[in-house]
Amino acid sequence: MVRLSFVIKQDPVNKFDASDFVNLALSPIPSTFGRLVLLAELRDYTADELAELLYGKEQIAAALQQKHRDIFFAWLGLNRASQVAEVEKYLADRSGNDDRAIAELAQLWAREKVYEKLRPTAASESERELFSSHLRDILQLRHKGLDSSGENHGG
Question: Which residue in 27, 90, 109, 146 has the fewest CB atoms around it within 10 Å?
Answer without folding.
Answer: 27
